Amino acid sequence: MRIAIDAHGGDHAPAEVIEAVKRAARAWPEYEFVVVGQVDKMSAPDYENIQFHHTTEKIEPDDEPVRSVRRKKDASMVVGCAQVKNKTFDAFISGGNTGALMAAGLFYTGRLPGVDRPALAAIFPSVVGQGTLVLDVGANPEAKPEHLRQYALMGSIYATHVLGIEKPRVGLLNIGTEAGKGTSLTKEAFRMMHTEAAIHFVGNVEARDILTGVCDVLICDGFSGNVLLKNTEGVAKEIFSRLKQEFMRTPLTKLAALALKPGLQSFKGDMDYKEHGGAPLLGLAGPIIKAHGSSDARAFFNAIRQAIQFHEKGVIDLITTHLASEGAD
């Protein structure tokens, strides 16, 4: 099994990428890890199961996604997605330009039969359990009801076989829990999911309830999902910053902080995206995973773990088989 990772993806690449790959090489000595990029500019770690695939170009964070993917044929992101398509790589991870990764995935890896639009599926933190799988969180700002239904099917399969959730509860992001709430998109999507026997649909879910674990998979269009995810990240960051200020204010609050430190660290870990790795682009014809742009070595390492699970559980085949059975019906 060969897991490839983009050397140029993310704010802290390539140093944090290389460190993550070294950790992965020690953790999974039976697997092969390939760093894709301008490898002549890197120091190669001395591991038998680490290889380098040299490319001459890279896609920058501010590059226009479609244009850069079409023009930079030897960019690390393009090469990674193309090599997944031809089975040279079993999975590819990048913390780079989200739009470019989506475009490279569509142009070079391709979609699964029966999937109209792939969805970016991220783990949304919660105060209970292992979080909620939210899709879409930015791949497609606009969506149709059928797209949301497909997201629900793919998200259910991923939650079951990768996250280990038996009969995952699927919710639809909305402004109220009543069946008649929302836009024409959410109303029709509600109707379609309510009659879809292959998923365990629990109805509409309000944003304020997600942290309490009201569902295991949350479905929404990419615009709403991206706003939801980034708002939560921002709120969590500011809360922990403010708590730190308050605990450092006086000797008494410092003592209180010392007593509460284990619990606070555990809570912070539950809310930290780095613990969950990356967001797979479900619906592509191969495992393509988008790591957070500010990922450090720990986050990239967990994205590698996620890619291994994705491949070993055969998620692509499971989604393909399910969609094919739908077509036969």
From TrEMBL:
Signal peptide: none
Main location: cytoplasm
Locations listed in the record: Cytoplasm
GO cellular component, one term: cytoplasm
Keyword field contains Acyltransferase: yes
SUPFAM superfamilies reported in the protein's UniProt record: Isocitrate/Isopropylmalate dehydrogenase-like
Coiled-coil regions, chain positions: none
EC number: 2.3.1.274
Record keywords: Acyltransferase, Cytoplasm, Lipid biosynthesis, Lipid metabolism, Phospholipid biosynthesis, Phospholipid metabolism, Transferase
Catalytic reaction(s) noted: a fatty acyl-[ACP] + phosphate = an acyl phosphate + holo-[ACP]
Pathway recorded for this protein: Lipid metabolism; phospholipid metabolism
Domain of life according to the entry: Bacteria
Family, similarity comment: Belongs to the PlsX family.
Listed name of the protein: Phosphate acyltransferase
Species name: Polycladospora coralii
Gene expressing this chain: plsX
